[in-house]
Amino acid sequence: MSQSSLSAYAQELVADVLATAEAENATAPDTFTRRVLDELEQAGEVENTFTAYHKAIGLEVNGYGMNESLGTLDLFITHFSLQPEEGRLTRSQAEGHFKRLQTFVRKCRDGLAKDIDESSDVHDMCVAVQKALPDAPRIRLFLLTDTVSAVSTLPPGELDGLTVTHEVWDLTRLHRLASSGTLSEPIAVEFNPPLPCLATPETDRNYSVFLAIIPGQDLADLYGRHGTRLLELNVRSFLQTKGGVNKGIRETLLTNPDRFLAYNNGITATASTVEFTELPEGGQAISRIHDLQIVNGGQTTASIHYAHTRDKADLSRVHVQMKLTRVSPDRLQEIVPEISKYSNTQNKVTVVDFSSNHPFHVAIEQVTRSLWAPAADGSGQETKWFYERARGQYTDALARERTPANQRKFKSLHPTGQKFTKADAAKFIHSWAGLPYLVSRGAEKNFRELMVRMGETAPAVSVSFAQRLLAKAILFKATDKIVAARDFGGYKINITSYTIARLAEATNRRVDLDRIWREQRLSPALAAALDDLCVPVREVIVNPLRGGTNIGEWAKRPDCWEAVLAVPWTVPDQLAAELADQTLEDSAPTDPDDGTGGDVALVMAIPAPEWFGLARWAKETSNLQPWQRQLADNVGRYVNNSWTISDKQAAQALRVMAEAQRLGFRSTP
């Protein structure tokens, strides 16, 4: 890494953070925190992050996260200097930050929430941390900084019997992440003792294949350290233990560990480099693997980890077969997705390729690179929207303009406010499509859902498609500013997404996206409508229907969307007058062969009175759980109003109907 490239990145980082903070009426440290967490979430380092700043005597925190893949509780603290090249973060400074963060955790354990205003984001954070502590296998503390740190990590510590690890994400590490062109830092794994292996005949100079047996404990430890990063060229989706395959894996691990090798299909992995050592008795063994990725067997890997950490399964007798394919580094992004695609057959969802090379994202990049946006400020200066298909493309493109004059010209043609990523595109698409609860689940999970729903039937990215996608970007960014100006005090991204979704539903998606593109801004009538609508939407989000439910978790649920849909709101006359004549296309494609579309049709074919009758029967007999009764009532309302029901809700509703019929419910003739 050259010092000049690091300097350029530092300048660009600070400029972008300050510009974003000003545009969103936020503080620079908060903006920096959110930016870094979004990048780490997309990289698979963290999950379910939530930013909220709190400082008191001896403690400080900028946010927390709940990593479902690892089961960890994550806490974040930020050191934003505004002058990243002026000095270094010393070891004692880093230790001080971690100490204040750990004090916050202790205070939460002791009931800090009771001293915090219940309407604030900080209160929600304190409550969530307090609830998570008893079940978390370990705590991870993150220090996020725009300076260069003298230390990259600190030794693990302990808090009430829980292991506490420390991670420093400084300027150097952030730059490496941004400029690598990959989703995250490569995973390098050492095996001690080495894994004996068998090499297969080499048939192609671009790859070679090795067969090995990996101990179950080693595989569990790998997932414990790296989580879904191991699966990032795969789906990065673990189906918990609800699917038949996972239940079978768990049962075998707990009752017949000796037979696991015989019963399980094993894992398929890839690497860019494999190092070997010679065995005394002859043959070779794998000592180190670079760029390790598991492209088939994610369920097996995660299930073994969870069985060990949650069920205390003894893995000493568990072994897993591994097919390891070494792929030339320059062909990694091309060949690995194909290996993943043809290896995965157990679940349809695992066929999806999440890499930047997916044709949908390649097509958006190609079209937008040559698409000029109309001048919006009367200057006559047309600009372009810059789609970052791969991390760091904007910074790399700017760096290629070697002179200051050329860099200024590049920025004027590609304003930072018109730069957007794959995760941003998923937010724009899902908000418009009426899926704000997916947006609320975080950048990485929302993006994953987009790709799962798209499946292998990605829409053709024409110029018209790209223009309407960018119109949705303008709509989202403008709504975000409108919500920020209201100074609601938190949950801005949730309110923004839900407001857009509610508007799209109320107008039957006839908001004139083509006009937004032509004018590169919202009409006064549209802006006024959004400003009016965001107020009642916010009230629903910050007041969960279920008592004791965390606001952040409530916003992630489909029933929050149902509550927002129930908000009485009429399209203002001025906006109604400028709506398009027809519904504009919905850019959230779904895979008609994903195995769930039929469930939706079956649910919608059952009359609404029958669902309502099921809900009444369940209440009278107490045969079903409260959430099942509520689901039946909600589905009845959806069917009655011809609203779109989600695949997940449809599948759950059919199971509830089957269970009710088993318990004696009879359909109305």
List the SSEs and their pairings.
Elements (H helix, E strand, L loop, with lengths): L2 H22 L3 H15 L6 E8 L2 E9 L4 E8 L8 E2 L1 H19 L11 H12 L5 E8 L2 E2 L3 E7 L2 E8 L1 H9 L8 E12 L7 E9 H11 L17 H12 L4 H4 L3 E5 L1 E6 L5 E7 L2 E4 L1 H12 L9 E9 L4 H12 L15 H11 L2 E2 L9 E2 L1 E3 L4 H8 L3 H10 L5 E3 H11 L3 H4 L3 H12 L8 H24 L5 H15 L6 H7 L4 H18 L9 H4 L3 H8 L7 H4 L20 H9 L2 H14 L4 H16 L5 H16 L7
Parallel strand pairs: 3-5, 4-6, 5-8, 11-15, 18-19
Antiparallel strand pairs: 1-2, 2-3, 7-8, 9-10, 9-13, 10-15, 11-14, 12-13, 16-17
Helix pairs in contact: 1-2, 6-9, 7-9, 14-16, 14-17, 14-18, 17-18, 17-19, 17-20, 18-20, 24-27, 25-26, 26-27
Q: Main sheet: which strands, in order across?
A: 12-13-9-10-15-11-14
Per the principal axes of the C-alpha atoms, what is the gross shape? globular
Q: In which range does the helix fraction lie? A: 40-55%
Mean pLDDT: 82
Protein structure class: alpha/beta
Strand content: 15-25%
**What is the straight-line distance between the termini?**
73 Å
Q: Poorly predicted ranges (pLDDT <50, ≥5 residues)?
A: 233-245, 345-354, 586-596
Provide key terms for this protein.
single chain; 669 residues; alpha/beta; seven-stranded mixed β-sheet; six-stranded mixed β-sheet; 48% helix
Verbal overview:
The protein is of the alpha/beta class. Helix content is 48%, strand content 17%. The chain contains 27 helices and 19 strands. The chain has a 7-stranded mixed beta sheet, sandwiched between helices. A 6-stranded mixed beta sheet has the order 1-2-3-5-8-7. Strands 4-6 form a two-stranded parallel ribbon. α18 (492-506) packs across α20 (524-541). It starts with a helix and ends in a 7-residue tail after the last helix. The model is unreliable at 233-245, 345-354 and 586-596 (pLDDT under 50).
